[in-house]
Design brief:
The two termini are about 50 Å apart. Helices cover about 45% and strands about 15% of the residues. The relative contact order is 0.12. It folds into 3 domains: about 100 residues, Winged helix-like DNA-binding domain superfamily/Winged helix DNA-binding domain (Arc Repressor Mutant, subunit A); about 100 residues, Periplasmic binding protein-like II (D-Maltodextrin-Binding Protein, domain 2, 3-Layer(aba) Sandwich), CATH 3.40.190.10; about 80 residues, 3-Layer(aba) Sandwich (D-Maltodextrin-Binding Protein, domain 2), CATH 3.40.190. By secondary structure, the protein is of the alpha/beta class. The strands form 3 sheets. It has a 5-stranded mixed sheet with strand order 4-3-5-9-6. It contains 11 helices and 9 strands. A hairpin with a 2-residue loop joins strand 1 and strand 2. This is Transcriptional regulator, LysR family.
Length: about 300
């Protein structure tokens, strides 16, 4: 309440529009030229000057035929008003520049760690004037409440009010370390996986994959739960030999190449949920959003990069 009353009091004491007119008239030495600069009639300019003089309690101009000159009070006030408007302009320009050059991306943790963090450098090289800020969480953010320009979501692409571009098809399959597989003499058929610790047996991907592999009743419900919060963490646990994780193999080609993980079966599944790039439809033409959209679609989905 105090802040609101102070703001209202300042608004009454300092009529900003009248100050703007005073600054122009003092700088140009003419009510007529001030009106031309501000798109106002000379009568309107005179009215605003009268308002500021009433607020100050002293005349600010000496009116003469075809000429106005500042009074002593006006001469003291004019440079301070000019400086104040320059500070306001600088603040607004700075805020606009920050809005244009800072790109706030919200992403799922796994996509951020396994793809975006490894590739974002090429975007920044191509667009050095855009600074990228990244936040990660599994929750679906509300663009009206969160400070985010774009988001990378996992889902079915049905988000009203948002422009949505498919980025990556999400397929999943069991993966484990070769050393762990050797502890049971190798993994030869899908049911062999049940001889090992299953990392997060409550993950619905497991039921779907075992069903597709022809394994009925894998009895996952009775196993110790191990919810690690993100696929990337489950992958690290699998690399460490802590169990079998069900992962998106496209994210772990480096681990496969280095012999830290392997995919024992060719079977991959998809639950109709994929990765999508999304942003508010109303902001689709913002330069920084267009730049990131064209870059990431060119990297992951070239057929969509020009749309």
């Amino acid at each position: 309440m105090h802040q609101e009353s102070l703001s209202m009091k300042m608004s009454k004491q300092f009529p900003l529009n009248a100050l703007r007119v005073f600054e122009a008239a003092a700088r140009l030495g003419s009510f007529t030229r001030a009106g031309e600069e501000l798109g106002m009639t000379q009568t309107a300019v005179s009215y605003q000057i009268k308002l500021i003089e009433e607020s100050v309690g002293e005349p600010l101009f000496l009116r003469r035929p075809r000429q106005v000159t500042l009074t002593e009070v006006g001469q003291r006030l004019a440079p301070k008003v000019t400086e104040a408007f320059e500070l306001l302009l600088e603040a607004v320009t700075s805020a606009r520049t920050d809005a244009d050059t800072a790109l706030f991306i919200h992403s799922t943790p796994t996509f951020a760690s396994q793809w975006l963090a490894r590739n974002i450098g090429t975007f920044q090289i191509a667009h050095p004037h855009i600074s990228v800020r990244l936040a990660t969480a599994d929750k679906v953010i509300d663009f009206g409440k969160e400070a985010a320009d774009i988001a990378i979501r996992y889902g079915d692409g049905n988000w009203p009010g948002l422009t949505c571009h498919p980025l990556m098809r999400v397929e999943f399959t069991p993966m484990l370390s070769p050393a762990l597989a050797e502890t049971i003499g190798g993994v030869h058929e899908p049911r062999d996986l049940l001889k090992l610790r299953i990392i997060d047996p409550n993950d619905p991907w497991w039921e779907q994959w075992f069903r597709a592999a022809g394994v009925e009743n894998p009895e996952l419900a009775g196993r110790p739960a191990s919810r690690l919060g993100a696929q990337a963490f489950e992958a690290r646990a699998a690399v460490a030999g802590q169990g079998v994780a069900i992962l998106t193999p496209d994210f772990y080609s480096d681990d496969v190449a280095l012999g830290r993980l392997y995919q024992p079966f060719d079977l991959r599944c998809n639950d109709s949920h994929d990765y999508w790039l999304v942003y508010p439809h109303a902001r689709r033409n913002a330069p920084k959003i267009r730049a990131f959209r064209d870059w990431i679609l060119g990297e992951l989905n070239p057929s969509l990069s020009q749309f």
